[in-house]
């Protein structure tokens, strides 16, 4: 699609993710909050992004830092109030920003009143709102399913004399998405937030929303070259997730949002079968608008094959959905720390941002990515991430990407609002703080603004088709075509300089270059966009 007059606002959009605990602290308790976000929305708007995605701010005991919800329709006191949320929405809309919020429909907190009622009785009105099952004759769990965070996905509950399912922490019991009453309540929750003015939802772990009611055992996974750090990695997840009936629930969600006009839905879909599910959940015009791919988030290297495989799975073909891409988020270590060495990080970050801006689909930026922040090394005694603690030292901590946003480099609290926040500061972040970057015309911050503006200005980048032209062990080259323009995008992801491929024309206008690239030679970690 290239007609910008009829294109939905979200198609080709740039969306900025905010992790509320770590963005800005307005009340001095060491934890970021909604008012802190509102006070810094001018920075976000200055980037030129279209929307903000807020990670969970709902009432929660915070065992998984908000992804264990105990009240879907209220704000946790550490983040503020519903009135604070309404003020955030008003300010964002005044700045031209859309607001997308997380919705966690696969599980709740074990402190949710629904779960308290469900575990209290096998015959109550919420008895079947969660996934309960009897023990096997020997007392072992009903199936061999394993939790994402390690160990069996079943916990025994003495109240009901049954096991309950949890695909994540035991404090995150699995909702029974097959139950129409559960679906009705979740749809009502979505309506609650739409009525408050939100512009869309990111659906967390939506492929976990329903399970195989027969509770069949998962088969073992074939051996791979990747290390298995969790018991979860030893299985093919055929029966504890990805049930075919999820599509019907998705269509109910889409129908609701269509009643509200220009709203947006994006699914978080990870796992071995994610490509098929992303396409299934976004096919046609009655399902979700987009799906959030994990192709880059957990990759330990940025390679031409990785890029070609990811974008090649989403051709500009009728009936195939619209992808979304991210190189970083709150669950994945910072890309500059995964993909390059500290000495090469500044140049790599510029090339990486140019590549992201050139991809077909929506693009997501995680807070601080516009500054080139590296991962923070969190000592074991300071870890709060339950997954990292359980799998230490084999899992890179999610805490290291959730550290406070650096606003003022010279300030003791980096301008965050408290000098001893919930997670330690990254001392290497001082030199990359927002005020430092603002003062440097050549900073990644200014480069990011330039590239986001270019995506809006060039139909080929925002909405055009993408075709791979050349790929080898270092170079990836593709064409973006849209409107009346064709752009050739060439990147050297390798560590050595490469000659410009002989098969590629050199005529045209260079729109952007990173790392000293030109039409004669591509230095290592460089990129170039040529308008034909």
TrEMBL record:
Q: Which residues form the Glycosyl hydrolase family 13 catalytic domain?
A: 17-402
The alphabetical list of record keywords is: Glycosidase, Hydrolase
Biological process per Gene Ontology, one example term? oligosaccharide catabolic process
- Quote the InterPro entries the UniProt record gives: GH, GH13_cat_dom, Glyco_hydro_b, O16G_dom_2
Q: Where are the transmembrane segments?
A: none
Q: Which SMART domains match?
A: Aamy (SM00642)
* Annotated GO MF terms: alpha-amylase activity
> Record's superkingdom?
Bacteria
Family the entry assigns: Belongs to the glycosyl hydrolase 13 family.
What PANTHER family does the record point to? ALPHA-AMYLASE FAMILY MEMBER, NEUTRAL AND BASIC AMINO ACID TRANSPORT PROTEIN RBAT
Protein name, per record? DUF3459 domain-containing protein
């Amino acid at each position: 699609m290239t007609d910008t007059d009829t294109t939905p606002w979200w198609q080709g959009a740039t969306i900025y993710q905010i992790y509320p605990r770590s963005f800005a602290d307005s009340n001095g308790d060491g934890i970021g909050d909604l008012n802190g976000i509102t006070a810094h929305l001018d920075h976000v708007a200055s980037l030129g992004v279209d929307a903000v995605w807020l990670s969970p701010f709902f009432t929660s005991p915070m065992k998984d830092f908000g992804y264990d919800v105990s009240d879907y329709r209220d704000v946790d006191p550490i983040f503020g109030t519903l009135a604070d949320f309404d003020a955030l929405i008003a300010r964002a809309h005044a700045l031209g920003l859309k607001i997308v919020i997380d919705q966690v429909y696969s599980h709740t907190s074990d402190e949710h009143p629904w779960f308290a009622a469900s575990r209290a009785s096998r015959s109550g009105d919420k008895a079947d709102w969660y996934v309960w099952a009897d023990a096997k004759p020997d007392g072992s769990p009903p199936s061999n399913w394993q939790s994402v965070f390690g160990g069996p996905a079943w916990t025994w509950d003495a109240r009901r004399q049954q096991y309950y399912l949890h695909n994540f922490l035991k404090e995150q019991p699995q909702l029974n998405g097959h139950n129409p009453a559960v679906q009705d309540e979740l749809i009502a929750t979505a309506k609650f937030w739409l009525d408050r003015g939100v512009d869309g939802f990111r659906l967390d772990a939506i492929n976990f929303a329903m399970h195989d009611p027969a509770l069949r055992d998962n088969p073992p996974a074939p051996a791979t070259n990747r290390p298995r750090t969790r018991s979860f990695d030893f299985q093919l997840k055929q029966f504890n997730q990805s049930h075919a009936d999820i599509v019907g629930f998705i269509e109910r969600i889409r129908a609701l949002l269509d009643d509200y006009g220009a709203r947006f839905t994006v699914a978080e879909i990870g796992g071995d079968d994610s490509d098929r599910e992303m396409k299934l959940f976004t096919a046609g015009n009655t399902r979700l608008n987009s799906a959030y791919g994990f192709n880059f988030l957990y990759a330990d290297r940025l390679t031409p094959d990785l890029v070609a495989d990811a974008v090649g799975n989403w051709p500009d073909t009728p009936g195939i959905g619209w992808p979304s891409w991210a190189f970083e988020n709150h669950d994945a270590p910072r890309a500059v720390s995964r993909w390059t060495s500290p000495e090469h990080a500044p140049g790599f970050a510029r090339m990486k941002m140019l590549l992201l801006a050139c991809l077909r689909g929506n693009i997501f930026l995680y807070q601080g990515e516009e500054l080139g922040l590296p991962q923070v090394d969190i000592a074991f005694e300071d870890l709060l991430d339950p997954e990292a603690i359980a799998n230490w030292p084999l899992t890179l901590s999610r805490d290291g990407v959730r550290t406070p946003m650096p606003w003022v480099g010279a300030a003791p609290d980096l301008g965050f609002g408290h000098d001893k926040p919930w997670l330690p500061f990254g001392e290497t972040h001082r030199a990359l703080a927002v005020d430092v970057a603002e003062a440097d015309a050549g900073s990644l911050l200014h480069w990011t603004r330039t590239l986001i503006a270019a995506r809006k200005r060039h139909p080929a980048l925002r909405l055009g088709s993408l075709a791979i032209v050349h790929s080898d062990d270092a170079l990836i080259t593709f064409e973006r075509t849209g409107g009346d323009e064709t752009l050739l995008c060439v990147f050297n992801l390798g560590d050595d300089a490469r000659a410009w491929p002989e098969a590629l024309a050199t005529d045209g206008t260079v729109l952007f270059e990173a790392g000293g690239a030109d039409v004669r030679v591509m230095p290592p970690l460089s990129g170039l966009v040529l308008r034909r």
